[in-house]
Specification:
The protein is mostly helical. It has 16 helices and no strands. The longest helix is centred in the last third of the chain and has 28 residues.
Length: 361
């Protein structure tokens, strides 16, 4: 949160006759008293004093002699924004005073031809920003995630380049199970080159696949991610899994073969190509388990198909292990394949390598 600034510069009132400036003067007295108080220990007194001063500005802006002068509007913006920030008890009052402050800021800016009140106006804006953010945080801490999302979204509308608030809005939306809202805000952080963009893209893809169950949207986000992070294994791997689930194996294999041709020494690409065959084999295995044992011919045909797919995966896993001998995921895959093929020697050798790696971790 930005540093809270609740002060204004000295404002000259010499241009007014006393009878015409009394309400402005009273507002100034209330503001000066507020500044002199210990704000942390006298919350209610501060609020009472600010409300009293704000009431004087009500009269000042209704007076024909002072309604078009900058001082009452500047004090009004300062005091209303301070109440909006300080009142953590009544959300309704905080919001109402925020609106008063926003109106006063616009009028003060219009009337402040010489810029004498620019600091006060800027401080009021900071108070408003902090007041809104505080309301969002309080709502989130109360687990009122829908309200928190609404509040953080309000901040992004006022400051459309604030990546931290888009992130907050995305997190609150996800907690509120507003998954479309979460993805929208996470992608906005990425669009603005905010921090942790890669993980936010991965999170967006996960939400699209798991919560929204939209593989088409997931693939589109992966394509977006690969433009920002070309050939990244995390996105390529997820893309491979989606293609397998959708039965679009050829697309995945085509993509992986292009990557291997471009960088033949990257072990993960060979591993993923092996996965395209092995996961098909697992799907056939699941299909085989549903076959009545009496249907021997059908059962044997599925076994042969499954074995053929496993045999196709093996060379790619071996190549991946050759390029990256310490990759435990590759050794796990090889161990399972050797167990299936009853290749005891290769199984024991692979298990020994895997156990040794896991002991070092």
């Amino acid at each position: 949160m930005k540093k809270l600034i609740l002060s204004v510069g000295v404002m000259s009132l010499s241009v007014f006759a006393y009878a015409q400036k009394s309400e402005v003067a009273e507002a100034k007295k209330s503001w000066d008293l507020f500044q002199a108080m210990n704000q942390a220990q006298n919350l209610q007194k501060n609020l009472d004093n600010l409300n009293k001063g704000l009431a004087h500005t009500d009269l000042a802006i209704a007076n024909e002699k002072t309604k078009n002068t900058v001082e009452p509007w500047s004090y009004r913006a300062s005091m209303a924004s301070a109440i909006a920030l300080l009142d953590t008890i009544s959300e309704a009052n905080s919001t109402a005073k925020q609106k008063i402050a926003e109106e006063a800021i616009l009028k003060a800016k219009e009337l402040d031809k010489k810029g004498d009140h620019k600091d006060a106006i800027a401080n009021a804006k900071i108070n408003i920003a902090n007041a809104i953010q505080s309301r969002g945080i309080r709502a989130y801490n109360k687990k009122d995630y829908a309200t928190a999302f609404k509040v953080f979204t309000e901040i992004t509308e006022k400051n459309p380049t604030d990546t931290s608030m888009y992130l907050n809005a995305g997190v609150a939306a996800k907690q509120a199970q507003n998954y479309a809202g979460a993805v929208k805000n996470f992608k906005k952080v990425v669009e603005l080159n905010g921090p942790d963009s890669k993980n936010l893209l991965l999170e967006s893809i996960n939400i699209e696949l798991v919560n929204l169950k939209d593989t088409t949207a997931g693939l589109a986000t992966i394509e977006q991610a690969l433009k920002k992070y070309p050939d990244d294994p995390d996105f390529v791997g997820t893309q491979t899994d989606i293609y397998i689930v959708r039965g679009e194996i050829e697309k995945s294999q085509e993509s992986l073969n292009k990557l291997i041709a471009k960088d033949p020494n990257k072990a993960i690409y060979h591993f993923l190509l092996g996965e395209t065959y092995y996961k098909q084999a697992l799907n056939v295995q699941n299909e085989r388990q549903k076959v009545d044992a009496k249907k021997v011919k059908e059962y044997n045909a599925l076994t042969a198909k499954m074995t053929g797919l496993i045999d196709k995966s093996l060379p790619f896993y071996k190549k991946a292990q050759e390029l990256d001998p310490k990759a435990t995921h590759t050794l796990e895959a090889l161990k399972q394949i050797y167990a299936f093929k009853n290749d005891t020697k290769s199984y024991e050798e692979t298990k020994k390598l895997l156990d040794a790696l896991q002991q070092k971790q």
